[in-house]
Amino acid sequence: MRRILWIVAVLATMPGAGLAQSFTTAAEIKPILEATRSAWVAVREYDGRDLVYFTHLMAWRCGIAEIRYGLNGTAAETLLPMEPCYETEAVPNALKPDSGVEIYLNEALGSVQSVAVRLLMDDGSELVADYPRAAVLMP
């Protein structure tokens, strides 16, 4: 037990020890985005509409400078508004319901056949992905 307490004490005195990653930079979130690429967008048929969700990207938006998208074969050039990163708060990536920023697009039922996404990261790099409807359609 003393050995465990000693190790904890040593680790606690190391620079940066005990500080959780804030996931607010491209370096921190790129590995997550790469691993979860299939979850970047989702299409849901709801109330006679196609809803195109960007929830996953919005939840990891700190470190993303821009999210751009295109529908049905168009290039990912349309800028998607994002909430700011709340870097001074305990959970910088939190989504606030009163922000006025939507996490989805509202399109005609059956009209979304594909979604292209281009992310400009805060380090200047880009990540891109293209999704056919069948790959992102929610059951």
Structural account:
With 139 residues, this protein is an alpha+beta fold. The chain contains four helices and seven strands, in the order ααββαβββββα. The protein has a single domain, classed as Immunoglobulin-like, CATH 2.60.40. The chain has a four-stranded antiparallel beta sheet. A three-stranded antiparallel beta sheet has the order 1-2-5, with no helix packed on it. A hairpin with a 2-residue loop joins β1 and β2. The radius of gyration is 19 Å and the shape is globular. Mean pLDDT is 87; it is low at 1-20.
Give the tags.
139 residues; Immunoglobulin-like; four-stranded antiparallel β-sheet; disordered N terminus
Layout of strands and helices, then pairs:
Blueprint: H1 2-13, H2 26-35, E1 42-46, E2 49-53, H3 55-59, E3 64-71, E4 78-79, E5 104-108, E6 114-121, E7 126-132, H4 133-136
Antiparallel strand pairs: 1-2, 2-5, 3-4, 3-6, 6-7
Lateral arrangement of strands in the main beta sheet? 4-3-6-7
Average pLDDT rating = 87
CATH fold group: Immunoglobulin-like
Number of strands: 7
What oligomeric state best describes the polypeptide chains here? single chain
Binned strand content: 25-35%
Low-confidence runs of at least 5 consecutive residues: 1-20
Radius of gyration over all CA atoms, rounded = 19 Å
Distance between the termini: 51 Å
**Can you identify the CATH class?**
Mainly Beta
Let me know the largest β-sheet: 4 strands, antiparallel
- What structural category characterises the helix and strand content? alpha+beta
Q: What CATH architecture do you see?
A: Sandwich
Can you count the helices?
Answer: 4
